[in-house]
Design a protein that fits this description.
One of its GO terms (molecular function) is DNA-binding transcription factor activity, RNA polymerase II-specific. Keywords: DNA-binding, Homeobox, Nucleus, Transcription, Transcription regulation. This is CUT domain-containing protein. Its main location: nucleus. It is found in: Nucleus. It is a single chain. The protein has 303 residues and is an all-alpha fold. It has 15 helices and no strands. Helix 2 packs across helix 7. The protein folds into two domains: 148 residues, lambda repressor-like DNA-binding domains (434 Repressor (Amino-terminal Domain)), CATH 1.10.260.40; 117 residues, lambda repressor-like DNA-binding domains (434 Repressor (Amino-terminal Domain), Orthogonal Bundle), CATH 1.10.260.40. The structure holds a DNA duplex (20 and 20 nucleotides).
DNA sequence: GGCTACCAAGTAACCCGGTA
DNA sequence: TACCGGGTTACTTGGTAGCC
């Protein structure tokens, strides 16, 4: 994969070094891992330019021999990585190919059957990369993902069509329309557009975004489905409008969620829809009405 | 590490019922 | 009867995991 400088990236080497400085801080709920990245040969803090994809990968790579006193708990790393993947910030395939530089099946093996660190050969480097990855802040991780994947020519080529000769993988933001939608909900990027008229309302788009994407631990899916159905009847708002304007999904998806709500624990991608619906119903009647007016909900003339 | 089956999510097509 | 909104079914696609 060719190394390219990335102009649009906002991340700087100094920011990355700041992240590295925090590495001496213990990992949350971790006691078995010792800092490793501090031994890496990182760019100096005087460099304040955007990093290239290669530099992003280098950041996670051991560039010096592994000290004998360093022990990495592969089980712990695998568990934490699996937890991180549930956030759906990146697919396993994407992470394997672009961050680790290996195949998705290889990563799966590392996560499902973690072998003792000392018994590993080439796998050591991959675990170290993951260890270092877990130490980064979420913002830095996202920037790295952006740098190593979203902007390189390979990704663009594959994103344009199935002609790619390289290993098939999925880019969560560019390639998969479905995952993009899912990602959208999981990462709290709100679906509402920002009409100019919103500027004149008492509730701002930012406020609404923050509120409606508020994280929720649990949603009673059946209850919220019934509430939404009742609310749609009451206000005569159409499923089409609510689905596209508020949820950012197609009407059919909303319809299925309302009529066949799965148990919360069984949900994966559609959790975001129920979270948004839950938060929507937590808004005051007045706020909902105002938003409906701004977003030109049908039948608003009658209210 | 390759192959393959399964699952989840999203959507198109179609149908049905209400209404003007 | 045409139109619109809601519901159902089948299909497509990507991710994951089992098997070897």
């Amino acid at each position: 994969m060719p190394s390219q400088s990335v102009n649009i990236s906002q991340i700087t080497i100094s920011e990355l070094n700041n992240a590295v400085l925090n590495f001496n801080r213990p990992m949350p709920s971790s006691s078995s891992c010792s800092p490793v990245l501090s031994s890496l040969s990182l760019p100096t803090s005087t460099q304040s330019r955007s990093m290239s994809a290669e530099q992003a990968r280098e950041l996670l790579t051991m560039s010096t021999p592994i000290p004998d006193n360093i022990y990495i708990d592969t089980n712990d790393i695998a568990r934490k990585m699996k937890e991180w993947f549930t956030l759906r910030i990146s697919t396993r395939s994407f992470f394997a190919v672009h961050v680790l530089g290996t195949g998705r099946n290889r990563l799966r093996k590392l996560l499902t059957v973690p072998r003792p660190f000392n018994s590993l050969k080439a796998g050591k480097e991959l675990y170290i990369k993951m260890y270092n990855w877990l130490k980064l802040s979420e913002d830095v991780k996202k920037e790295i993902l952006s740098v190593v994947g979203m902007n390189d020519e390979k990704s663009k080529k594959i994103a344009q069509g199935p002609e790619g000769e390289e290993e098939e993988y999925a880019c969560p933001k560019k390639i998969s329309r479905k995952r993009e939608v899912s990602h959208h909900s999981e990462t709290s990027s709100y679906s509402l557009l920002s009409p100019d008229s919103f500027l004149h309302t008492s509730i701002t788009a930012e406020t609404l975004n923050a509120f409606i994407n508020k994280q929720v631990d649990y949603v009673d899916t059946k209850k919220i489905s019934n509430l939404i159905k009742d609310w749609l009847k009451e206000t005569q708002a159409t499923q089409e409008w609510f689905a596209t304007k508020i949820l950012g999904r197609c009407r059919k998806t909303l319809n299925q969620c309302l009529n066949n709500p799965r148990e919360w624990k069984n949900l994966t991608q559609n959790k975001g829809i129920f979270v948004t619906m839950h938060n929507w119903m937590c808004l005051t009647k007045e706020n909902r009405h105002e938003i409906m007016r701004v977003y030109k909900a049908p039948n608003m003339n009658s209210h």
